[in-house]
Every structure is written in structure tokens, then in C-alpha cells.
Write a structure and sequence with these properties.
Blueprint: H1 4-12, H2 18-31, H3 35-38, E1 43-48, E2 51-56, H4 71-89, E3 94-105, E4 113-118, H5 121-125, E5 130-138, E6 144-156
Antiparallel strand pairs: 1-2, 2-4, 3-6, 4-5, 5-6
Helix pairs in contact: 1-2
């Protein structure tokens, strides 16, 4: 698979379509990877090794009974950001799979939500297979509405000879 960060950079720097249309095209394509990603209509705004950021627009399809962005939509956004980060960061000789999520809801999600996933470079070169991705979601006024970690299991890829 091509590096997700490289695909994002290529898509958002195409001279004819421009960065905003490029973000939307990349986001649409990425959301097809898993159907639940498409349900939140993510718009990636930054992808690079150890960092990914996307926006979940507040629209009726992601609202709950009190008119805020519902918890599952928030978790889907965090997981999409984590997936983009993992695919743009992981060394070629390793593979990853999510194994858990510890999340706290800290405020009402009353606006569009920016979801951020972050790691440190040394986490990916460690011999420890447990890797924790730090995740947060922010309202447009900067208030954190969700935060926690997504736990990954990172191992060596099996050799092709085995």
C-alpha cells in the first residue's frame, strides 16, 4: 500500500484542483476503506508521520437526541485519524491492528469536531508491541470534547519464506 501521507500530499497539491478539493477527494477515498468512516463524512486537514487531523462536520446524520455529535461518530473520527496516522508512520517491516480504546467524553460536541491522533517516532521503533496513540477531539472554540488513547498491537510482518 502506498504511504497515506504521500497520497494526501499528492492529492492536496494538485495544481488544477487545489488543496480544498484535494482534501475532499482524499477524504472521500479514505472513507471508503471502512463503511463507518464514510458515515461521519470526514475531511482530513493534515496527515504526516506521527500526526493526523480531520474534521467531522456537525450535520444531522451524526447528531444524537440532544443535537450534539454522538459518541460513536466521535470515536469513528478518532479511529479514522489514528488509521491515517498509523498507515503514514509504521515502518515497512511492521503491521498494526487496533486492540482497544480508552476514551473520556469531556464536554458536549456542539460544533464541527476536529479529531487529532498523535504518537512519538520512538514508539514505532520500540520492541514493545503495545503502542498507544493519543487522540483528542476539539470543538471550533478549542474545547476538548473527547480524549484518550487507542491501543494498537504492532508486530513484525511475517517473512515471505514462512
Amino acid at each position: 500500500m502506498a504511504n497515506v501521507a504521500d497520497l494526501y500530499k499528492t492529492t492536496t497539491t494538485l495544481p488544477i484542483i487545489g488543496p480544498l478539493v484535494g482534501e475532499r477527494l482524499f477524504s472521500l477515498a479514505f472513507a471508503q476503506k471502512a463503511p463507518y468512516f464514510a458515515s461521519i463524512h470526514p475531511r482530513f486537514t493534515k496527515i504526516e508521520p506521527n500526526y493526523a487531523e480531520l474534521v467531522i462536520p456537525k450535520r444531522r446524520s451524526v447528531q444524537n437526541h440532544i443535537g450534539t455529535v454522538h459518541a460513536i461518530a466521535l470515536c469513528n473520527g478518532l479511529e479514522a485519524a489514528m488509521g491515517a496516522l498509523a498507515e503514514s508512520t509504521i515502518p515497512k517491516n511492521k503491521r498494526w491492528i487496533p486492540k482497544g480504546m480508552d476514551i473520556s467524553y469531556t464536554a458536549k460536541a456542539t460544533t464541527d469536531i476536529t479529531c487529532v491522533a498523535e504518537t512519538d517516532a520512538e514508539q514505532w521503533t520500540s520492541d514493545n508491541p503495545d503502542l498507544h496513540v493519543r487522540v483528542k477531539g476539539y470543538r471550533t472554540d478549542g474545547v476538548v470534547v473527547i480524549e484518550g488513547v487507542i491501543k494498537l498491537w504492532v508486530t513484525e510482518k511475517p517473512s515471505k519464506d514462512a
